[in-house]
Amino acid sequence: MSRGHNFSAGPAALPEAVLRRAQAELLEWGASGASVMEVSHRGKEFMAMAEQAEADLRELLAVPANYKVLFLQGGATQQFAQIPMNLARRDQRVDYVVTGDWGEKAVREARSLAQVHVAASSAAVNHTAIPPRADWDLDPNAAYVHYTPNETIRGVEFFDIPDVGDVPLIADMSSTILSRPIDVSRFGLIYAGAQKNIGPSGIVVVIVREDLLARCPADMPKIFNFAEHAAQNSLLNTPNTFGWYLAGLIFQWLKAEGGLAVMEQRNRRKAETLYRYIDESGFYANPVDPAARSWMNVPFTLARAELDAAFLQESKEAGLLALKGHKLVGGMRASLYNAVTQDSVDALVAFMRDFARRNG
Ligand SMILES: *Cc1c(COP(=O)(O)O)cnc(C)c1O
Asked: Is the dihedral of CA 310, 311, 314, 317 positive or negative?
């Protein structure tokens, strides 16, 4: 058996060392005499693991003490609804800055729950750039400002945190969290589906400033209420125990690798390697404003779309997996999350060079 170079956009590559450890302790987890999937989520062992995972994530991201960290279910998509349900009243304005397809979806889900205002959008340029900050129409009385720091489908990333004054800033960090250090204190709430940089699918991490929990309406279903989940340490009901455990192993792996400053160096280099080759190739192209090119998701097209099928077939045969672009965009996409190594990127560029030479 040989594992391929995995460029999947999500569920995405996991570090091989983590998978091997999970394999080694799959049948007997610690001293529990059972697998991690077979023990109570309210037992001592599971609770200790859950606490350690949270502590490690807090350390990695330097999460300030006045933030709660929640491990929930329903994915980032559930957060598109859960956030307005908790943090805005129906008659309140909420501002959305839209730089891609996930931001569009967040807007659609929020529409029935609050007064959604699209404060800025890059739709007019096909979501290939970030609208200039001076053009954002923000309301200082909005309940929050929502944006997507990395748009996974078209590969548009913010490299600074927008200044939105005193209005809580909410970020869908699903495809960029843990790729480099961030200043959590600038945010009211951060959320991220796990299956890109945190672990397997089935968990969404929510990091929320404590004072915002006072907004959660008392009359909403408990299962959607952030304050309830915070009060019960995300154990309101049975969590995704295996996903939580694996996320914990990823956090330990990240710490052992040197933390997010090291990830930043590696991720910058991986992205530079690929964009530099695309730009100089004269055969491949990436349409995104160079100032906003994502480190995590690199969409690209071939000189002639008729070659797409051959590119996908041959790249797969060469052990380069999951390069097909999102159906909304076409072409190719290489996702370069933390678990994707420089070796994998070098192998991709070598293949692309050879393919261009043969077909250019
Ligand atoms: C993958 C992704 C989502 C969707 O996550 P689910 O867990 O499938 O709901 C939302 N936002 C962004 C930015 C993503 O990359």
From this structure: negative
Whether residue 129 contacts residue 158, with contact meaning beta carbons closer than 8 Å, is answered with: no
2, pLDDT greater than 90: no
CB of 295 closer than 8 Å to CB of 272: no
Cα 203 to Cα 110: distance, rounded to the nearest angstrom: 21
What is the three-class DSSP state of 208?
strand
Q: What is the pLDDT of residue 1?
A: 59
Helix H or strand E segment including 300? strand 297-302
Digit-coded pLDDT (tens) for 195-205: 999 999 999 99
Q: What is the mean pLDDT of the chain?
A: 97
| 152 Cβ below 6 A of ligand 1 | yes
Q: What is the set of domains in the chain, with CATH numbers? A: 16-257 (3.40.640.10), 258-359 (3.90.1150.10)
Catalytic machinery residues? 102, 172, 196
Q: Which helix (H) or strand (E) holds 118?
A: strand 115-121
Confidence of residue 246 (pLDDT cuts 50, 70, 90): very high
Distance from the alpha carbon of residue 78 to the mean position of ligand 1, in angstroms: 9
* b (16+ CB within 10 A) / e for 263-287: beebbeebbebbbebbeebebbebb
Distance 201 CA to ligand 1 centre (A): 10
Whether 77 is in the pocket of ligand 1, judged by its Cβ within 6 Å, is yes
CB 149 within 8 A of CB 158: yes
Over residues 79-135, the pLDDT tens digits come to: 999 999 999 999 999 999 999 999 999 999 999 999 999 999 999 999 999 999 999
Q: Whose CA is nearest to atom 4 of ligand 1?
A: 76
Whole-structure pTM value: 0.98
